[in-house]
Amino acid sequence: MKIVTVLGARPQFIKAAPVSRALRQNHQEIIVHTGQHYDANMSDIFFEELNIPKPDYHLAVGSGNHGKQTGEMMAKIEEIVLNEKPDYVLVYGDTNSTLAGSLVAAKLHIPVIHIEAGLRSFNKLMPEEVNRILTDHISEYLFCPTDTAVENLKNENITKNVINIGDVMYDAVLYNRELAKEKSQILEEAQLKKGEYLLITIHRAENTDDPEKMKSILQAFSSTEETKIWPIHPRTKHKLADYGLNVEEIPNLKIIDPVGYLDMLTLEANARKIVTDSGGVQKEAYFMEVPCVTVREQTEWVETLEGEANILVGTDQAKMTEAINKEVKPEYKQLFGNGEAASKIVEVLEDRLNA
């Protein structure tokens, strides 16, 4: 098989690592990096740490309004696909890069492989929700991470080539967890102790584009004296500056630049609790068996809500503060496969190829 893989954002690099390893044993993969995440701490370090082959094409699209960004990606991806003539175009998740790659392939009658298909937050105000719905409806192969995702697709009358293969992010965590213990020095560098700090990540547009929501989030962080570490997304940092919101007034808060994958795994595994609006971090918290507080009204990872392993709080200051301080002892279950999702994906594609 010859497959063009379209990547653009940090979570996609993590998902791609195990799949690329499995694919490249017997097949040809062409990696297209759209440049949606272009900061070195959000992009280059992931390719290095995860040992992902360097992109064959780097489109350097950068940030911008959704239409402009997606349109520019599509024009450049189309040129590559016409030149490379792949058997499949493979996309991950729910970003503008995902939508751009899948639309180009569908228009050129090339089958789309969607990894992490079937997720739904049921909130179409989120650009990610629109991206994932459209991608699922034009994909030929839909690899789902959970039974819930399969059921979501069934409810939309999508049943052909829908397979629950588990979560490729779980593959990545299992593969890199021990490596992180050996190599990461982030706890020493940030002077953090296991189980004695909150890890914070906030980046979603539904939060960062609303100054009142960001103000409420910061007030919740100010309500606790506990040590807090926040590897801040460049976009979030700029938004806070635009709103005139000063994070330096928050007690015991350590603001650091975005960190690499191994450092992030270490920060997650050793936190007392994680506060996030990231879909990927919600899952990683579950994998690491660390309680999570999600600063959103809905989550596509509904499985993590069982037993208060993950608590949805929106941006209500009182709810955030209560959830941060609440002591919970969830039971964690094996909901996301057995860590062999990537090899299963390749097996399915090979079976279809040889059928």
UniProtKB/TrEMBL annotation:
Q: Does the keyword Isomerase apply?
A: yes
Give UniProt keywords alphabetically.
Isomerase
The lineage's top-level taxon is Bacteria
Cite a single GO MF annotation: isomerase activity
Q: Domain named UDP-N-acetylglucosamine 2-epimerase: which ranges?
A: 24-350
Regarding protein family, the annotation reads: Belongs to the UDP-N-acetylglucosamine 2-epimerase family.
Its protein name is UDP-N-acetylglucosamine 2-epimerase
Q: Which species does the entry assign this protein to?
A: Sporosarcina globispora (Bacillus globisporus)
Q: What is the lineage of its organism?
A: Bacteria, Bacillati, Bacillota, Bacilli, Bacillales
